[in-house]
Design brief:
Blueprint lengths: L5 E6 L2 E6 L10 H16 L5 E6 L3 E3 L18 H18 L4 E5 L2 E3 L1 H7 L3 E5 L3 E3 L13 H9 L1 H10 L2 E3 H7 L4 E3 L4 H13 L3 H14 L4 H15 L3 H11 L10
Parallel strand pairs: 2-3, 3-5, 4-6, 5-7, 6-8, 7-10
Antiparallel strand pairs: 1-2, 8-9
Helix pairs in contact: 4-5, 8-9
The structure holds ligand LHQ.
């Protein structure tokens, strides 16, 4: 039997998901979308899994859409790429943003096209120093998708977003970190250990509180200060009723480390 195109491993509260089509630099075909959905279902449903780590097998992280799957034969009707986005990529990006658990991305190699924006949709992005990010879409006549035109200007500002999206040049991991596109670039050999350490730390954190933080930060882009203050009030009300908040305060007063349960 051939190996699954997406692998799921469970380790101390972390769902480690590995894109696994290394000979295609983990480019997406429909099977990979399906398998990734299945892994995210499992991570979402299991209360013992309190953080997700996403990475790629081999020398690439993800080269975006498998272009071999979307060729246009001479004289044939062009494919409806909008349908591909509507049914496969958009639900994936929405799901990662709305997932009520933190998602760490370990970008182990090149992240191109939808693969780059998949990484940007994660909560904390670490990249190996040898990794790179390419908004490859313009090289083949397409528009950055999977949230690219939303993430890029917000993360790096309009001038750099335009440069990246219109030129399609490779951005090194270190530049990406210096520009604020990602959290940190780390030595190649340290990437997985660092990412796993971070994911484990997040898996021991107050999961519900972190989910509310994600929600507040996402909402902030569309809100003015008044609306955001109202939202913070509402979310804090919810956070203040969690068991983890109670434990956090108790542990602080008792001068001991907290034991959060994610509830
Ligand atoms: C690939 C791919 C690939 C197939 C490497 N497909 N085989 C959404 C909705 C619907 C349709 C359209 O698109 C989208 C969103 C998108 O993601 S559009 C953007 C799609 N991605 C790209 O345009 C990137 C294409 N890849 C590249 O430009 C290069 O491969 C990069 C710069 C990522 C890496 O370059 P190298 O390190 O030189 O590796 P390579 O090019 O030699 O690739 C290694 C193998 O992987 C090679 O196969 P082979 O059999 O010759 O060894 C490539 O053909 C294959 N591969 N990306 N997207």
């Amino acid at each position: 039997m051939s190996e699954a195109v997406v692998l799921l491993a469970r380790d101390r509260g972390v769902a480690e998901i590995t894109l696994n089509r290394p000979d295609k630099l983990n480019a997406f075909n429909e099977e990979m979308h399906r398998e990734l959905r299945r892994c995210l279902d499992a991570a979402e449903a299991d209360p013992e899994l309190r953080a997700v780590l996403l990475t790629g097998a081999g020398r690439g992280f993800c080269a975006g859409q498998d272009l071999g799957d979307r060729t246009v034969a001479e004289g044939a009707e062009p494919p409806d790429l909008g349908h591909t986005l509507e049914t496969l990529y958009n639900p994936l990006i929405r799901r990662l943003r709305r997932l009520e658990k933190p998602v760490v991305c370990a970008v182990n190699g090149v992240a191109a096209g939808a693969g780059a924006n998949l990484a940007l949709a994660c909560d904390i992005v670490l990249a190996a120093r040898s990794a790179s990010f390419i908004q490859a879409f313009c090289r083949i006549g397409l528009v950055p998708d999977s949230g690219g035109t939303w993430f890029l200007p917000r993360l790096v500002g309009d001038a750099r977003a335009r440069g990246l999206a219109l030129l399609g040049e490779k951005l090194s991991a270190e530049e990406a970190a210096a520009w604020g596109l990602i959290w940190r670039a780390v030595p190649d050999e340290a990437l997985l250990d660092e990412a796993r350490g971070l994911a484990r730390r997040l898996a021991e954190a107050p999961t519900r509180g972190l989910a509310l933080v994600k929600r507040a930060l996402d909402a902030s882009w569309a809100n003015d200060l008044d609306a955001q203050l109202d939202l913070e009030r509402d979310l804090q009300r919810v956070a203040g009723r969690t068991e983890d908040y109670r434990e956090g305060v108790r542990a602080f007063l008792e001068k001991r480390p907290p034991r959060f349960r994610g509830r």
